[in-house]
Design brief:
Layout: E1 43-44, H1 52-60, E2 72-73, E3 84-89, H2 95-106, E4 109-112, H3 113-123, H4 126-136, H5 143-154, H6 157-162, E5 164-167, H7 173-181, E6 188-193, H8 196-204, E7 206-208, E8 215-217, H9 226-231, H10 240-261, E9 265-269, H11 274-300
Parallel strand pairs: 3-5, 3-6, 4-5, 6-9
Antiparallel strand pairs: 1-2, 7-8
Helix pairs in contact: 1-11, 2-11, 3-4, 3-5, 8-10
């Protein structure tokens, strides 16, 4: 049975542009003190300390982190396993940009349920044909179809060998439970936190060039010429009213999923520029990799 929170509806292929790398902004937000996690999981602290920026810069320089920096408690194995990451963020949180930066540096397989669905529909796979029936009727694609698509993609050799970055999925506790039953457990659940005012500003100022397909922002990434500016269009749902409704849905989805991944959730300050946001994520992933390597080497010895 389909529903808005747990299922997917997609308009015709290519009708909705993806955010560009240029969409970012700077601000500040408060963080909470970290708590120690269970040693039974490959996990780390779910929040950052107020000294976040300094800690992250030291982590990137390979200087031992301060006591308040995120801690990893890693269960060793004969060889370090590839990273398995889930990332979540509201519309205009910069999630698409961070996914590109993460996959470029860590060579992970990027799996986005929306892209996966469109690709399978275009390829005419069994799941794609089933999904198309719903899409052509303007109906939601049921949970079980999307879950099977994600499962099959994560089982592909490249995902198993290189590791994966699951983008914006799962969106509900039932989807998270289904993935866990299939044996897919992330090492970390990254949550991009951006203030509502900034999210609204990013969305409302977004514009599309119908000729080139490039995404602009009236404030952060304005068009290069008056000619381009004159032909820019705005997506019908890029309004303050509609984006606030989308944020309500997003917050409900995140609340449902966080209970499943509470011990491996790391909250990232997404109000900062894309470079600063990535430095936070990079420090977390680098530290996880280093501790996995140390654990593997100690076992080998």
């Amino acid at each position: 049975m389909a529903c808005n929170v747990n299922s997917f509806f997609y308009p015709p292929l290519g009708s909705i542009p993806r955010p560009s790398l240029s969409q970012s902004a700077s601000s500040t937000s408060n963080t909470k003190s970290p708590k120690l996690l269970s040693s039974s999981q490959s996990s780390f602290l779910s929040t950052f300390s107020p000294r976040l920026t300094a800690d992250l810069i030291r982590a990137r320089s390979r200087v031992p982190p301060s006591p308040k920096a995120p801690n990893f408690l890693v269960v060793g194995s004969a060889g370090a396993e590839p990273l398995k990451i889930m990332i979540s963020g509201a519309p205009a949180s910069g999630k698409g940009t961070q996914c590109q930066l993460i996959t470029q540096k860590y060579d992970l397989v990027h799996v986005a349920a929306g892209d996966l669905l469109r690709a399978e529909v275009a390829a005419g796979t069994e799941n794609g044909r089933r999904a198309r029936e719903y899409m052509e009727k303007g109906q939601l694609v049921p949970n079980e179809i999307v879950v099977m698509m994600v499962k099959e993609r994560l089982l592909q050799p490249d995902s198993q060998e290189k590791g994966w970055l699951l983008d914006g999925y799962p969106r509900s506790s039932s989807q998270a439970i289904a993935l866990e039953e299939f044996g897919f457990k992330p090492d970390v659940f990254i949550l991009l936190e951006v203030s509502e005012d900034l999210l609204v500003e990013r969305v409302v100022g977004r514009r599309l060039d119908p000729v080139t397909g490039k995404i602009y922002h009236l404030k952060y990434s304005p068009p290069e010429s008056e000619e381009i500016a004159s032909r820019l269009t705005q997506r019908f749902d890029d309004t303050e009213e509609r984006v606030k409704l989308r944020l309500v849905t997003h917050n409900q989805n995140v609340a449902a999923v966080l209970s499943m991944y509470e011990d491996i959730t790391v909250k990232i300050n997404g109000n900062e520029s894309k470079e600063v946001v990535f430095s936070q994520i990079d420090a977390v992933l680098t530290q996880l990799q280093e501790q996995r390597k140390e654990s593997s080497e100690s076992l080998a010895a």
